[in-house]
Amino acid sequence: MPTPSPLTTELKAMWHQCVLCQEPTILTVCELCESDAGFMHHSLLQHNLCAVNDTLTEDFLDHDAIVNAKFDELWILAVYQYPLTYLIPALKFHGQRHFATLLAQWFVLYRVRYMKDFPQIIIPVPLHWRRFIQRGYNQAELIAQTLSQHLHIPIDETDRTALVKRRRYTKPQSELNQEQRSQNMQHVFSVNSAAIAQYQHIVLVDDVMTTGATINDLCREIYAHAPHIKISVWCMALSTVD
Ligand SMILES: [Zn+2]
Predict the structure, then answer these.
(1) Distance from the CA of 26 to the center of ligand 1, in angstroms?
(2) Which member of 37, 107, 112, 167 has the greatest number of CB atoms within 10 A?
(3) Which of 212, 209, 203 lies closest to 232, judged by CA?
(4) pLDDT in single tens digits along all 242 residues of the chain
(5) Distance in Å, CA 36 to ligand 1 centroid
(6) Tell me, what's the pLDDT at 53?
(7) How far is CA 23 from CA 10, 12, 38, in A?
(8) Separation of 88 CA from ligand 1 center, angstroms?
(9) Are 134 and 174 in contact (CB under 8 A)?
(10) Where are the alpha helices (DSSP H) in the chain?
């Protein structure tokens, strides 16, 4: 393929704008906005909070998602603040599916490079089929698909050989207080015990974590069937807003 001339690149840039600052760029998000995002460079480990990033505030050290974690490790792309507070709702509620690719690519670029061991399978946190039909897609699955392509790790097919399924319809967590949230999320998932038992290390992928109630319930169900398993969680954002 011929190398584009500077003029072609310039013309191309005129027709594309950064989705955040509207400056001309051939990228979805320009390099300046990307450098503003404040991506984290360490995992948040349940059993070793000393490894927590220095830039995290006290809010995170006693964050529900970390204190009550039922998983083995948590990796997040960034704290849930701008630009993720723009990109994730646009992906989730306004049909901007291509933002899933962008988030997953950032995750590979900024987070995966610091990881030492990798899961054998990627499991997107499943949506209930009613919400899937309303929305037309599962945003966690879109993110997981790009991660799977880049990392060459297979993805759990939620509609066919699903390792985990959401068996109960739940109210959106954002409409509930903290106590209602944890009750809302009890025994929501079912696990294919024979299939999950063959894995030693899995990863659950989701867009944003607030209290961790959803992921914790899923982890409890998985551990009930496969106590030996290591569960990593890859979330694009961690929110401090309750
Ligand atoms: Zn920009």
Answers:
(1) 11
(2) 107
(3) 203
(4) 555 555 555 555 556 889 899 888 888 899 888 888 777 655 555 444 434 444 455 556 567 777 777 888 888 888 888 889 999 999 999 999 999 999 999 999 888 887 888 999 999 998 877 788 888 899 999 999 999 999 999 998 765 568 888 877 666 656 666 666 666 666 788 899 888 999 999 999 999 988 888 888 899 999 999 999 999 999 998 887 65
(5) 9
(6) 45
(7) 13, 13, 20
(8) 16
(9) no
(10) 6-14, 31-36, 58-61, 64-67, 84-93, 98-110, 129-135, 139-151, 178-184, 193-196, 213-225
Whether the model clears a pTM of 0.90, i.e. scores above it, the answer is: no
Ligand 1 center–CA 44 separation, angstroms: 28
CB atoms within 10 A of CB 119: 22
Which residues of the chain does CATH 3.40.50 include?
Answer: 39-238
Q: Could you tell me the distance, in angstroms and rounded to a whole number, from the CA of residue 93 to the centre of ligand 1?
A: 22
Ligand 1 centroid distance, CA of 16 (Å): 11
CA angle centred on 99, ends 190 and 149, rounded to 5°? 65
Residue 122: both structure tokens together: 């990627």
CATH architecture of 39-238: 3-Layer(aba) Sandwich (3.40)
Q: Which amino acid is at 120?
A: Q
Residue 193 tokens read as 């015990």
Closest CA to 192 of 158, 169, 216, 217: 158
Predicted local distance difference test score (pLDDT) of residue 49:
40
Q: Residue type for 118, please?
A: F
